[in-house]
Fold this protein.
Amino acid sequence: MWMRKKAERKAFSVKKQKKEHKQKKNISVFLNQRNIIILILIIILILPFFPASIGSKSKFVNIEKGYGASKISYVLKKEGLIRSRIAFRVIFLLRGGHMKAGEYELSASMLPWSIITRMKNGKVVSHPVTVPEGFTVRQIIKLFSDKGLADEKRMAELCVNKDFVKKCGLETAGLEGYLFPSTYFITKDMKEEEVLLMMTKEFKDMWRKNGFDRDIYLGKKKMNDIMKLASMVEREAETDFDRPLVAGVFTNRLKKNMKLESCATVVYAFGEKEMHKDRLTGRDLMIESKYNTYLYHGLPSGPICNPGVASIKAAIFPAETKMLFFVLKQDGSHSHTFSETKQQHEAAKKASKAEKVGEVKKSK
């Protein structure tokens, strides 16, 4: 009897232990499932705040003026740069402030927080634009227009607008000659006025830095006349060595009241279509224009390009020479032959033609 009760108690205890173990196992399974669900929920909630992808290439995105957080988030989501518009706007609300308009270089591997920081700081893309020495206003306008950084018509109008030229701090009819050749960093949200003001400021800074005001005062010269002469030197001379000599020839001809007879002024009178013409005909030299120095005495009515510092220096400090003529050599040296008399000049032209014929034969 006693043994049977003992066996029953033992069986009950084992059964109880099994039940408790099963309950613990069920609780453990439930807890594991709950943890997984919580983890999934956490990932779902946090993931939108992380980058849209890893190792993505940069994209250029333009944010227009007047765009708020909602519109900006739409643009970024469309470009695949953020995971969630809502998460982006939540981060922006936490940050406060405002995001600036402009063109941005962004990547889907950036955190939304980082994207907002960049846009709040206005770190827009700057496009480098190099304006070569000797470019005309029309060529410069086309350069900016082709890069989508300026409206061609608007910029052209400003370059001859008297009020705007005065705003640039210049006393001249237009901006030809005063858009200094250099490398400029332009943002897409910049207006044409800002670009031109930047370029004319660069010209004035260069002029002041080199002390040219003092030099022309001592030489009793005018800035506008210097820039006309410098632009001719820029278009005619191809080497720094020749620039002061070319300026010296033009200066001597002015003193003797001789026509300057610069082919570069005739080409400018024709316009951009004829800018790269190999040879001018006798008929070309008769084109009616105040820029045509074959027809009119003195300097042209304005600069014919935008010269660099070397040409401006040559115009202010022309070489002291007796030379009155020059002709480009055809030997590939890009230098000129300078002559004092018409007879010497004609001989130099014949020699130049002979060099050109020789070069043609060699090429064949």
